[in-house]
Structures are given as structure tokens and as C-alpha cells.
Amino acid sequence: MPRPALTTTLLSLALLTACSANGTAEPAAQSTAADTAAVAQDAGAQQARETREIGPFSVETVASFDEPWALSFLPDGRLLVSEKPGTLQLVDVATGRAGEVTGVPDVVYGGQGGFGDVVPHPQFADNGMVYLSYAEAGDGDTAGAAVARARLVADDAGGGALEDLEVIWRQVPKVSGRGHYAHRIVFHEGMLWIGSGDRQKFDPAQDMASNMGKVLRLNDDGSVPADNPFADQGEVAAQVWSLGHRNPLGVAFDGNGQLWDIEMGPKGGDELNKVERGANYGYPIVSNGDHYDGRPIPDHDTRPEFNAPAITWTPVISPSSLVFYSGDLFPDWKGDAFAGGLSSQALVRIEFDGDRAWEAERFEMGARIRGVRQGPDGALWVIEDGKDGRLLKLTPKG
């Protein structure tokens, strides 16, 4: 459940209305739930939200959520936030108030599985379509990532419903285990791109009979573009744009239309890759990290036939997300990328010069960072990982 960043006054109001532990307001004798919601909305709109300073940022706490995983802005400025246990919230960022969006698919929750990414269709203003990724149950104890699309219909209470939900893509095959779904999604020039993790099974990243451990390119209905690099192979191989990936948790296009992915390495060796058509990035044959049991993996420079990363991190940052900045609030950072860091508890700024990239700055956030987006006004918006993960708005300090 989302929780606005409330003042003491609003907390008192919540106590007076005897909110239950699950967040459902139970009206007092002289009040209705509708009255309470109206008072809360007014108070939320007027509250002075908690603000602190971190490095160059003024950091405003907007709301908190139950294991938030992804955030994405709609054209009207409202924000969609997915919660890993299987809920979708529609947020009024001016007040921090959120309403649940019903009709989401069932998810397999546990480990790294659950509700994943959420993005609007590029023509959302006309078609109202949103795209969702999540962990889907298979036979027995198997599971795999899936992507569905549906029409978002908002309601008067601040939430809404998904209608006409259709699954348009699935990982093949479904396997046991609860790790490395990845399932980050992004649109570019009308095409849907998916970062598909290797599900901790290693070999699928090099196996063209599987779409795991790959970056995929699809039409917006899930069909395969005829000009994909492996289209002539048919089956799931036709979906593949690049292969040899491990756990690509961030996929984003720069201002020149170039795709980059950021992914978790094994023990060491997190990677930022310039993703090129038909390229093989080598995992699990090569990596700049090693297996968790200590067995070495040959580095990229031992096998030049594989594309090497633009950056590797050892010790790791545990990247969770990636966005390129194009706003005006931080003009010196236009064209830079920002990556969320989980174990590093940081927001990492990355600079570029052609094919070269490097970590320029690391901002210690004091919490695991699950997602980062640029807002319509050029602010950076961040969600923290875990229960009570906060939604933060980052603007220039001073």
C-alpha cells in the first residue's frame, strides 16, 4: 500500500478515523470513509513534505510503498508505481496520494520474482495502453518473465482498472528458481525492447532456442519485426537483438538513439554495455567477475569475438535501473546517465564520449535504490527498494 509523506496533523486524522493495519479506513461514528478521504486529500495537498539535502540535491520524500519496483510517468504528470507483491498504484505527485489500479495479472512473488516494470505506450494519450512485466507461474514449480499490455481506465477516486489485458511475450522455457527475471522494458521508435535475464541458468544466454539472457526487440503487439538480426531463424531466436547477457536490469536509449544496458555481474563484474545489433556479450563464457563459489570466469579480453562492456564495476554497485538525462534542471548533466544501485545504496552518474563511458560521480543515498526516472519538469525521481520504500524527488539544492 502506498503511504503519502504525511504531517503530524494528517497522522492524527488517520488515528481519529481508526485506520486498520492494512490501510483500509474504518469510519468513526460521526464520519464516513468518503469524508475521511476528502479530509486526507486536502491535508495531503497542503502538507510540507520532508526535505533533506544529499550532495547537490534537495531530496523530497513524496510517498512510500510496499516493495516498489518500477515507476513511470504518464503524459498528464501522474505516476505509475509497481509494487513487487503484485499491485499497481497511480500517484498524484503533487499530493503523494495514490490509488490502486485493479485488474493486474497474478504474479509469482518470492526471491527476485513479482511485479516488475510498467511503461505507457508511446501513444498513451490516444490509446490508453500500458505495458507490464512480471513473473508468471508455469507448470510445477517453474516460472518465467512475461509482458502484458492493457488499457488503463482511471476512476474518480484516484485509482483505476486495467481492461482487455493481453499477454504478448513470455520467457521460453519456464524454469525453476526465483532469480534473474530482469524483465526491464522500454519503447523506442515504436518498438518494444525487453531485457530478459538468464534466470540463473547460465547456458540459455548463449542458446538461441531460449529468449533468456538476451535483449529482445518486438513490435508493440509482441510480434517480431521482419528486420530483426535473427529473424530468419524463426521461433524465439527471431526476437533476439543481442545475446550473452546475465541480468539486464536497466535498458535505456541515449539522445542519439543508441541502446545501452546495465546488468548485474556474478561475484564482481557489473556491466554497462553499448547494445549493438546481433552482438554477443559473452556471458557465461566470459565475464569480468567470477562465480560465487570462487571459480574464475575468463575476462572479456581473453575472447575478443565477444563485445566487451564499456564499464565494469568490481566491487559491484548492483545496478537496478538506468535512465539518460535530458532535462533542464541539471543542465550540466544533459546526455549523462543515472543508474540506481542496490548494494551500493547509491545513485551513480555516468558520462559518455562516443563509445567510451565512465562513472563520473556517486551519490550516497543511504538506502537501496530500485528505480530512477526523469520527471516532466526535469527532476530526478527515485524509488527505494524494500518494504516502506520511499518515492523521492531530487531537484537542485539551494
UniProtKB/TrEMBL annotation:
Domain of life of the source: Bacteria
Name of one Pfam family that matches: GSDH
Residue span(s) of domain Glucose/Sorbosone dehydrogenase: 65-393
Keyword Cell inner membrane: no
Membrane-spanning parts: none
Keyword terms: Signal
InterPro entries, per the entry: 6-blade_b-propeller_TolB-like, Glc/Sorbosone_DH, Quinoprot_gluc/sorb_DH_b-prop
Signal peptide stretch: 1-25
PANTHER family per record: ALDOSE SUGAR DEHYDROGENASE YLII (PTHR19328:SF75), HEDGEHOG-INTERACTING PROTEIN (PTHR19328)
Name of protein: PQQ-dependent sugar dehydrogenase
